[in-house]
């Protein structure tokens, strides 16, 4: 899982935005993005029972007409031996940080989708909905 800035069409303008991706990686490619910081491996030694991909659909409407419709992956939640581990991309689109939590009912700790809908100019309506994909 990575969350690295890339130039993309961001609501009608090219901008560097952090994009969350899940890709197959070679062991040599897994390292801290921070120079001089060693990656820490933490073995789980458990059985993965379920994986939940947390996706969001963000839509923008100007004067009643839809001007933007984007899907993004907000994060992933693994259930391991009854406990959860989550990795969440921050709501701030430029942030490359990933929040890591462990415990129970971690979907409740994810940022609210309504955060996307706030602080737009008058005449612009922004809505977001979350759709979780469960893999068992």
Radius of gyration based on Cα positions? 17 Å
* β-strand amount: over 45%
Treating each run of at least 4 consecutive H or I residues as one helix, how many helices? 1
What level of helicity do the residues show?
under 10%
- Largest sheet, strands/sense/barrel: 5 strands, antiparallel
The count of DSSP E runs of length 2 or more, i.e. the number of strands, is 7
Which stretches are low in confidence, meaning pLDDT under 50 for 5 or more residues running?
none
H/E series, N to C? EEEEEEHE
Shape: globular
CA-CA gap between termini: 19 Å
In spatial order, strands of the major sheet run: 6-5-4-3-7
Looking at how many chains there are and whether they match, the oligomeric state comes to: single chain
Mean of all residue-level pLDDT scores: 90
Task: Give an account of the 3D structure.
The mean pLDDT is 90. The strands form 2 sheets. Strands 6-5-4-3-7 form a 5-stranded antiparallel β-sheet. Strands 1-2 form a two-stranded antiparallel sheet. It is built from 1 helix and 7 strands; from the N terminus they run E-E-E-E-E-E-H-E. The chain has one helix spanning 114-117; strands spanning 2-10, 13-21, 48-62, 65-80, 83-89, 98-103, 124-135. With 136 residues, the chain is mainly beta. 3% of the residues lie in helices and 54% in strands.
